[in-house]
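G., the chain you wanted modeled:
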Amino acid sequence: MFIFSKTKTQILLAGFIFLLLPFFVGADTQGQRTNFFIAQSFDIKGREKILAVLENVSLKGYFYLESDWEETLSEDEKKTINQNLEILGQEFDNTIYPKLTAAYGSPWEPGIDNSYNITVLFHKMKDGAAGYFNDGDEYPKIQNPKSNEREMIYLNADYLKFPAVKGYLAHEFVHLITFNQKDKERGVREEVWLNEARADFAPTLLGYDIKYQGSNLQQRVNQFVNSPSDSLTEWQAEKKDYGIVNIFIQYLVDNYGIRILADSLKSKKTGIESINEALNKAGFKKNFSQIFTDWTIAVFLADCNAGSNYCYKNENLKNLKVAPSLIFLPSTQKTSIFLDYSIKQWSGNWYRIIGGKGDLELDFDGEDSVDFKVAYVLCKDSELCQIKFLELDGQKKGKLSLENFGKNWSSLNLIPSIQSKVSGFLEQEPLYHFSISASIKIKTERELLVEELTAKIAGLQAQIAQLRAALSEISDKRPGTIPDGFSFEKNLSFSMTDSDVAYLKIILDKEVSHQTWSGNGYFGKSALAAVKLFQEKYKNEISQFSGYPIQASGFVGKGTRAKLNQIMRNF
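Predicted structure as tokens:
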């Protein structure tokens, strides 16, 4: 957590003031007592100033304890606290400071206090507060009367008893680095969500999250699972905000490396734009928007088999999955539903449609003022899910039709998001609306019986055709010529024998096959393969003739016949 303490005018004056600062501050000595300003909003008693004693001096840190709190400790407790401070100082010198500065760059050194030591103040804070960084301390009192004029971070004294304190120290230290790299060196203010995300990744970067149980990562996973649809970019300093930024940044680094976080910090750009710049610099083809969409699919599927971008590499996160909101279609003759939802920019949203048996028609309608992206995942039990994207028109409307839903597919999973705004995110971002309407026609018992009988008849016809083919004297000659005035009016399918098949082969021979056919009028395996090639070749035109996107199945239906007749007219 970090606190902003300066005005816009102060920001403009910062570079000038930095140059004019006198450096006459001496080194702190162990045992000295110093008054410090603190954040009233964090302090357990709402104080703005406390007295603290310097209990430990390490190579890179001054570790102060609130005097009032320290005086309440027993001698045994003081001994334990001092031992923990000694260990923490060594960890700061040997791990936290060198590794984080190697990754992100340095804090301001020697800084406003002309010291290479970072001041760490432990004081009693409100429940749930781990620590904070106040950038107002980086400015002289002439600008900020409540400045402590130090490179300084604050931690909750209660956590000195627990190993997690090293992760909190690392988190706040990254904020100190960020101030120098962004505010001071480049004169820009980092977006809060990315500032927090970069800091909260520090425990993972330092290896503190390898042991998952009780780790910062486990805490963030729990917070994310409880509020997975929280906006990534809206920051209200709530637990769910830390959950979403941590889990997303874990994915980003998993797939694109720590270099993206480091390079985005050393950029004059901020937030999303700085990440896009870093991605481009590293030679990646995808931008932030595409990566965010991939992430929304990854936390739903968690399946590397569906694509390398649809899972986490981190062993502690490989099984992380969000639970989608369920939309159930009852098994009635005809079902229609209309649902209205509200979401914010850069939030993940997951809706699973199940139930019903029949042809599904789905309509999506989003607000015109923002850009929606809608991924959808079609799943069937025990089979690999298919990932697709809904095409939206200028009014943010899209339509999807699925035949035999409930039989061909066990679920349709919609993953909409809004990705319009790229900077200037507020503490409270607006909500935008979209609606989902779905209807499904359930087949009656009579229709199902007719469908079953039709399938049986087709099977018998196929058997008859095979017998005819076996009994016929089939020559290995190419098909002859197509009669004048002929057109394809019947559907043609595998294993049937018909004169139309012979004419079909003439066109296939010219368009895709160039082979000697076995049996002029028999629709065999060679013909089936050739039809599939033909359908792939003219897929767009056949789809237009059919009125829906076709698959290269080898079945000669309406659209394929129309394309054959078109070609035949040019023979």
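The chain has 16 helices and 16 strands.

Shout if anything looks off.
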